Each structure stands twice: as structure tokens, then as C-alpha cells.
């Protein structure tokens, strides 16, 4: 029991003293995850909106693939990217293996299906009366699409937050492609795994507490957004 108390005391000391190594790891984690989420949202939201607004041949297959991708095992993504970026791989000349860029790509692959699928789901749940009213008021197809997207904005934001939760807690893929190099590719989750194996529980606990706080903030934000609702409003047309 005394061992646990001492470990927690030292962990809290690292946090309140703003330990340099701790801050570097947290900063890199946020940089990698937020960058990956930015690109996942940049491509995922428009694609999800397109899937939600249009019907075309092959759409069902795409949705099945996206739903499958939402549960894609991180280690499989890491293995695929490792083979792709290794020296003998087809993209080995890019020298991306064991770099933050490779970690961003891995997290992008994990977040993209979530953002896209949840955006599509939010779009299709918009009341059809919104489209009909907009068309009645003389809106163009583009304006109708913008109206629907506006009505689905809380669901879309919830999808982005869900994507952030996915990448912040991820360890398998980034450990494989990042290598957990001190001062270069060490992030929160990989450091927790490494330091626990080494018996350095103080740093692992400190990072674990930070990760729990981030996860709590993400989940609270997700809950609040899910509970919010907006009345139909197309007066801007």
C-alpha cells in the first residue's frame, strides 16, 4: 500500500512541477493526434456528407467498409504501414518509418472511418421536412445541402470528438510505426507501456492521470453535444 501511495505522490509531483519530459511527451501526443484528426475531418466530413445526401451504386459497400473500419484493429494498421514504409517496402524511399509523420498517418487511418460514418449518420437523421421546406423556398441543391449539414452539425462535431477519443487512446499502430524513440516519437500511450515495463511507475502514472483527464474531457464534450438539439432553422436562405 505504501508503494502505491509513494508512486501517486511522485506522479502528482511530476504533474504540478511541469516536468520537462512529461510536457514534451504530452505536447507530441496532442500534436500527432490533433493533426491526424484535422486531416480525418478535412476529408471525412465532406465525404460523409456526400454519402448522406446522395444515393448511388456501390454506396452500401462503402458504408459497410466504413463501419468495418470503425473497429479496425490498430496493430493491423501498424503492420500494414510498417510493411509499406520499411526499407524493402514500396514507399521505403520516403523514409517515414519511425517518424511522427508515420504516426499521424496511422492515426488518420483510424479516425477517418469514424468521422466519415458518424457524419453520414448525422446527415441521414435530419428530418426530411428540412429539405422539402428549403426547396419550397426556392433553395438551390447546394443551399439545400448546406441547410442539411447545418442541421446535422452537432452530430458531425460528435463524430469528430469520437475520432479524437479513438486516436488519443491508441497505442498499437503508433508503437509499430513510431518506435517510441525518446524525444522524437514518444507519446503518452507508448510511454506508459514502456515505463511500466521498466518499473518507472511515477512517470507512467503521471501520464495515465493526464490521459484520464483528456479522456474525461472528450467524453463530457461528447455527452453534451449528443444531448444538445436545435430547432429547424432555414431563415438564412
Q: How would you explain this protein's 3D organization?
A:
- The chain is mostly helical and 237 residues long.
- 76% of the residues lie in helices and 0% in strands.
- It has a single domain, classed as Orthogonal Bundle (MetI-like fold).
- It has eleven helices and no strands.
- Helix 3 packs across helix 5, helix 5 (100-124) packs antiparallel against helix 9 (172-178) and helix 10 (188-198) runs antiparallel to helix 11 (201-227).
- The protein is globular, with a radius of gyration of 21 Å.
- The N and C termini lie far apart (65 Å).
- It holds the Pfam family BPD_transp_1.
- Keywords: Membrane, Transmembrane, Transmembrane helix, Transport.
- It is a multi-pass membrane protein.
- The chain crosses the membrane at residues 32-53, 60-85, 97-118, 156-183, 203-225.
Summarize it.
Helix content is 76%, strand content 0%.
List its traits.
76% helix; mainly alpha; 11 helices; 237 residues; MetI-like fold; globular
Radius of gyration, in Å, reads 21 Å
**Regions with little confidence, pLDDT below 50 for 5+ residues:** 230-237
Order of helices and strands: HHHHHHHHHHH
How many helices? The count is 11
Average pLDDT, to the nearest integer? 87
GO biological process, one term: transmembrane transport
Membrane topology: Multi-pass membrane protein
Subcellular location: Cell membrane
Domain ABC transmembrane type-1: 26-222
